[in-house]
């Protein structure tokens, strides 16, 4: 495409631009991506194979522990116990200091990291919310 324009520019003696709409440019990009995928499909297949092998090997050996989203079975049990206790002890609408919750569970020999993990998961789901400068937690549901 550019070669034809170069010849034309040389003939008329000045630089021109290629008139193209945004839609045409997007279509050109999609075509180029599709051609690249077809041409590199063997490399993509190999990359996927390597990803699966390394991920499954790490997961089966326990090396993914500590990476966000991956926790051990024991940690999962502890998370479940903490969440059940929070739900049982704090009725919907009750307010309690985050510090009090954390200290109480630490006295019960739960890890601080796991306690905060549970609290943040419950906040993300909308079960609890922060109030008063992130010092007080209120149970929503």
- Can you tell me the CATH superfamily of the largest domain? Winged helix-like DNA-binding domain superfamily/Winged helix DNA-binding domain
Side-by-side strand order of the widest sheet: 1-3-2
Give the N-to-C terminal Cα separation: 61 Å
CATH architecture of the largest domain: Orthogonal Bundle
The overall average pLDDT, rounded, is: 82
Q: CATH fold name of the largest domain, please?
A: Arc Repressor Mutant, subunit A
Low-confidence stretches: none
Computed Rg: 28 Å
Task: Tell me how many strands there are.
Answer: 3
What is the percent of helical residues? Answer: 55-70%
Q: Note the total helix count.
A: 6
The dominant shape is: elongated
The amount of beta strand, in percent, is 5-15%
Number of domains: 3
Strand count, sense and barrel status of the largest sheet are: 3 strands, antiparallel
CATH top level of the largest domain is Mainly Alpha
Order of helices and strands: HHHHEHHEE
Structural class: mainly alpha
Protein name: DNA helicase
Organism: Rotaria sordida
InterPro entries: MCM5_C (IPR054125), MCM_lid (IPR041562), P-loop_NTPase (IPR027417)
Domain MCM5 C-terminal: 81-139
């Amino acid at each position: 495409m550019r070669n034809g324009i170069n010849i034309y520019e040389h003939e008329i003696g000045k630089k021109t631009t290629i008139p193209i709409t945004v839609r045409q440019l997007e279509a050109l990009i999609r075509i180029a991506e599709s051609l690249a995928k077809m041409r590199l499909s063997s490399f993509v297949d190999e990359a996927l194979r390597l990803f699966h092998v390394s991920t499954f090997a790490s997961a089966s050996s326990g090396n993914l522990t500590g990476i966000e989203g991956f926790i051990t079975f024991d940690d999962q049990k502890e998370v479940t116990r903490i969440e059940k206790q929070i739900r049982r002890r704090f009725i919907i609408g009750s307010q309690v200091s985050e510090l009090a919750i954390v200290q109480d569970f630490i006295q019960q020999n739960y890890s601080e990291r796991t306690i905060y993990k549970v609290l943040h998961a419950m906040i993300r789901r909308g079960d609890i919310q922060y109030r008063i400068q992130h010092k007080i937690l209120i149970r929503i549901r």
